[in-house]
Design a protein that fits this description.
Beta-Lactamase; 3 domains; binds adenosine-5'-triphosphate; binds magnesium ion; histidine kinase
């Protein structure tokens, strides 16, 4: 059963139950008030028939009843009647006296009314003393007593103490059916509006969600869902859209990885194939006796050895990179004093610097020893990779290297800068990608595997730091990386 149908059902049942309860309550009220199981339409008649007069009016009525029983003739006395009428008027009632079919006294408030038509006929047994009547369009309750003015002549008379009843009561009586219709109409309208409201705020968004889920099932993730409200449904729509966005992003990332993987495979194949071809060529040369002299033979064997070493280095680096990538290379962090650590590495490379005619400039603060938390061996690898790049790519004199250490709030920034050829703006964002080499250097004697900076990035990110490069073609390259400063909390 759909929610829409259930809602329709529940609204209908609310309307039906309300109507039944309303009618039942009205009926029970009328029964409770009248003590009679008659229809509700006679509710007011019955009520006023039972209680037509107030206590004072009742007393005056009993008074006059006494006269009617014992001295009926006195009820022809206009003065006496006017006096009673006056007293009745004080309690908002009026007096009417009838002789046969003639009205001999009528309260002034009833002047101009055709009472004879409205008054009930004689009931000499006085079985029905109290009742209601309509005269014209006015509604009265009354107490009546029929008697004989003279039993001999059979001259009949009646006294009426009448009281006009609220037109409101009468109005309610006539308006009751209309009121019920209006009540039901309002109930229906409210139900309908409520149903539409719920449909619009719950069912429609739910339908949209279902359609979106179907889109996702079919692999379409490019649409966007907009929440139309801030309630729970709106939040659900919003969360659903966030989920879609994340799914979309992760699929894009997956595709990107897939693309990378293909690229990687093609790069590896290429980079392995080139030295293999060379090795094969030289080996064939030796086999075919091309290297006839010892000198040539040495050259061939030397070339084979160099290429094999290159390949070994590539495979080693690749293995190392993939270990880092798979988080299989554990980091063993320790406290490292940055300044002396960098100086030691530079000292180890002093001969290299000399060979390349490179001068090294240091920029560091000496106030306090600066400790960082690092894996010594890996950090050394990063620095050697960066220095190696500078040495490899610097191509004009004077060759200058700058090593700088800067202390910030919580981290240290290390800069290794050279005045080499720089990196082209288009290449700069890619140099940290594995196998990325700027075009001219690819396959060049100076060119490596394009893994040095990728490994450096893996290691620095493994330390929770960041690494980036700034470069101006022709001016030089600066590579920066950050490390967390070690704070002794003991
Ligand atoms: N100091 C630099 N000056 C100019 N270009 C640089 C410098 N450092 C890096 N590059 C450019 O960035 C590329 C990527 O550097 P990376 O160290 O990753 O690879 P590589 O040096 O070519 O090979 P590997 O380090 O694996 O031997 C280099 O090929 C080079 O084009
Ligand atoms: Mg390198």
């Amino acid at each position: 059963m759909s929610i829409r149908f259930r809602l329709l059902l529940s609204f209908t049942s609310v309307v039906v139950v309300s109507v039944i309860l309303f009618v039942l309550t009205a009926y029970l009220l009328s029964v409770a008030a009248t003590g009679d199981f008659r229809s509700i339409s006679s509710f007011y008649n019955i009520h006023y028939s039972l209680h037509p007069l107030s206590e004072e009016e009742e007393n005056l009525f009993i008074d006059m009843k006494y006269w009617a029983k014992h001295e009926p003739e006195r009820l022809k006395d206009q003065l006496l009647l006017a006096d009673y009428d006056y007293q009745l008027k004080m309690v908002q009632a009026g007096l009417v006296v009838r002789q046969n079919n003639k009205i001999i006294y009528a309260a002034p408030t009833l002047n101009g009314m055709d009472l004879t038509a409205g008054l009930p006929s004689y009931d000499m047994g006085n079985n029905s003393i109290r009742n209601t009547m309509n005269v014209g369009n006015r509604f009265f309750s009354y107490a009546k007593f029929d008697f004989y003015f003279s039993p001999e002549t059979g001259e009949k008379g009646s006294i009426f103490v009448i009281r006009e009843r609220s037109p409101f009561a009468e109005m309610v009586r006539t308006l009751l059916p209309i009121l019920i219709v209006i009540f039901v109409a309002i109930l229906l309208l409210t139900g309908f509006l409520l149903y539409r409201y719920v449909t619009r705020t719950i069912i429609h968004p739910l339908n949209k969600l279902r359609q979106s889920a179907e889109h996702i099932k079919d692999g379409d993730l490019t649409f966007q869902l907009q929440a139309t409200s801030r309630d729970e449904v709106g939040q659900l729509v919003l969360t659903f859209d966030q989920m879609r966005q994340q799914l979309y992003d992760s699929i894009q990332l997956q595709l990107h990885y897939e693309e990378n993987r293909k690229q990687l495979l093609s790069n590896i194949s290429h980079d392995l194939r080139t030295p293999i071809t060379t090795i094969k060529g030289y080996a064939e040369g030796i086999r075919d006796g091309v290297a006839q002299t010892q000198e040539k033979l040495d050259k061939y064997v030397g070339a084979i050895h160099t290429k094999a070493t290159d390949m070994e280095r590539l495979v080693d680096e690749l293995l190392y990179y993939s270990k880092l990538d798979l988080n299989k290379e554990p980091f063993s962090f320790g406290q490292v004093e940055l300044g002396p650590f960098l100086h030691r590495i530079a000292d180890e490379l002093a001969i290299e610097f000399d060979n390349h005619a490179v001068t090294v400039k240091w920029e560091e603060e000496h106030e306090q020893p600066l400790f960082v938390l690092a894996d010594r061996e890996k950090l050394k690898r990063v620095i050697i990779n960066l220095l190696d790049n500078s040495l490899k790519y610097m191509n004009q004199s004077p060759k200058q290297l700058t090593i700088a250490i800067e202390r910030n709030d919580e981290q240290a920034t290390i800069k290794i800068a050279d005045n080499g050829p720089g990196i082209h703006h288009d290449s700069l964002p890619h140099v940290f990608e594995r196998f990325y080499r700027e075009e001219p250097s690819r396959g060049q004697a100076a060119g490596g595997n394009g893994l040095g900076l990728a490994i450096a990035r893996q290691i620095i990110e493994g330390h929770g730091g960041t690494i980036w490069a700034e470069s101006e073609p022709g001016q030089g390259t600066s590579v920066f990386f950050t490390l967390k400063i070690f704070v002794d909390r003991r």
